[in-house]
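Check out one such.
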Amino acid sequence: MTETQLFDEWPERYDQWFTTPIGKLIKEIEGELIHELLDPRPEENILDAGCGTGIFTLDFLAGGAQFMGLDISHQMLKYAVEKATGYPFFKIQGDMLYLPFKDNSFDKSVSITALEFIADAKSAVDELFRVTHPGGYVVIATLNSFSPWAARRKAKTQKGQKHIFENAFYRAPYELLTYSHLKGVAKTAIHFQKNDNPEEAIQIEQLGESKKLDTGAFVAVRWEKPRLI
């Protein structure tokens, strides 16, 4: 099965996960972290590479920014377009390793939970830098290899259990920071577990954040592309 076929079968299940009590909490926490790092401003033109069903894009659109959603899956993009009806959201099917845009095309670029499906993640990050304006942010978020969530998913794969992340690449915060020679900032979130009670999960999350733990299941990194002199 190709990556495109894999993701074409996933949109409905992906969205349903975020309607569960723990899924809603995860979406809220991850969305807040990405919003903090990306800081989308009204009228900015932002690339969302690997936008999927637009589960996070929609919240950013509400702030007035314009988004270009790129994804390898036609079905994922179809869901994203339906959600973004009435907003300045544009779609294009494509590969993150070969972005079909000119240099410096976007004010900022972001990629959320897409790098785990790309072996050559540094090349994907290089592409995001290429299409981002000088002075703009490049933000990536992916699954953290330091997290118990990653260990559990790897164990499922070793047991032969089929799941969307069976061939995923898990990366640590320090590893992601090496994908650019520039100094970046890395933060993690989702310090609780899948089966935790949502109310208890909030307390666990607050504790993990206060301790600045690097073991959250979700790791996000931001760099600023240097301005031209």
Observations:
- Strands lie at 45-49, 66-71, 89-93, 108-112, 137-143, 185-189, 218-224.
- The chain has a mean pLDDT of 90.
